[in-house]
Amino acid sequence: MNNTLSINCRYQHASGFKLDVVMNATDTVTAICGSSGSGKTTLLSLIAGLAIPESGFICLGDQVLVDTTKSIFVTPERRQIGVLFQENRLFPHLKVKANIEYGNRRRGDDQVCVAKLIKTLEIQHVLGRYPGSLSGGQQQRVALARAIASGPRLLLLDEPLTAVEESLREQISTYIERVVEEFQIPTLLVSHNRLLVEQIAQGVFTIENGFLRADSINSNCYSQPCCC
Ligand SMILES: Nc1ncnc2c1ncn2[C@@H]1O[C@H](COP(=O)(O)OP(=O)(O)OP(=O)(O)O)[C@@H](O)[C@H]1O
Questions:
Q1: Ligand 1, pocket residues at CB < 6 Å
Q2: What spacing in Å lies between the alpha carbon of 63 and ligand 1's midpoint?
Q3: DSSP character for 22?
Q4: Is residue 226 a part of any domain in this protein?
Q5: Residue bearing the CA closest to ligand 1, atom 25
Q6: 124 lies in which domain range?
Q7: Does residue 167 lie within any of the structural domains?
Q8: d(Cα 7, Cα 14) in Å, to the nearest integer?
Q9: What pTM was computed for the model?
Q10: Ligand 1 centre from 169 Cα, in Å?
């Protein structure tokens, strides 16, 4: 399946901040680097459908998610995009199993095997517990499971290590690497953590003051100096 992410769009936030992005991501994992306030989260919000561009298009493979010239806007729940935010956003009133099942509620051929997902992330022993009783690292692993359980065509990781305590970051990086590789999910990663970027990304794009021009063919190799 063609999962190239093609973006050519402009957006203006109520604060006056402007985003101008032209990019083509074909690598399995592409990292977006940039200083604080450069627009990384805003870009992920546009891709997820949580913000609407003023003009332009966003395509995932053959599917047009947004095209302002044709008034096309696919709503977030129909985009088949999984998102993992800095803070895990798990449902506190649902046990771990129900949180994951929520992610897995869509029926279809592209459903992932939840048992395999649970095994890969080693969360079998916490399925009957509430998120509030778990460690930060366990919560982030469950949130990752929920994001992947729906069988997304694209996974967006927004600073997935920021809320995790320092001593657990390497461990969580390894779990992220494992699932992305095992389930072969095209991923866009925003992270200041150089280790995670080097561990999982094949390409690195740089955004500066809301401006990004990048193509996987010309992207930095992760072995070269990275801006993160
Ligand atoms: N809630 C908000 N209130 C005011 N301005 C905002 C808000 N959210 C975003 N912005 C504006 O949008 C710009 C981009 O924000 P964004 O969160 O996308 O940056 P970022 O690169 O993800 O930053 P960080 O690395 O600090 O998370 C900010 O510089 C700011 O001007």
A1: 13, 15, 17, 34, 36-42
A2: 28
A3: E
A4: no
A5: 36
A6: 5-220
A7: yes
A8: 21
A9: 0.90
A10: 24
Res. 110 pLDDT band, cuts 50 70 90:
low
- Each residue of 7-62: pLDDT tens digit? 999 999 999 999 999 999 998 999 999 999 999 999 999 999 999 999 999 999 99
Number of separate domains in the chain: 1
HSE toward the beta carbon, residue 83, CA cutoff 13 A: 18
Gap from CA of 86 to ligand 1 centroid (Å)? 14
ipTM passes above 0.90: yes
- The structure tokens 């129909």 sit at 78
Residue 54 lies in a domain: yes
**pLDDT band at 108; cut points 50, 70, 90:** low
Task: Note whether residue 39 is domain-resident.
Answer: yes
Please give the Cα distance from 55 to 36 (Å, whole number).
24
Question: Could you give the CA distance from residue 110 to residue 121 in angstroms, rounded to a whole number?
Answer: 20
Per-residue exposure over 99-120, b if at least 16 CB sit within 10 Å of its own CB, e if not: bbeebbeeeeeeebebeebbeb
Q: What are 151-201's pLDDT values in tens digits?
A: 899 999 999 988 888 888 888 999 999 999 998 899 999 988 888 898 899
- Based on C-alpha coordinates, what's the Rg of the chain? 17
Strand partners for 60: 5, 63
Query: With pLDDT > 70 as the criterion, what percentage of the chain qualifies?
Result: 91
Give the torsion sign (CA, 151, 152, 158, 159): positive
Report the CATH number at residue 100: 3.40.50.300
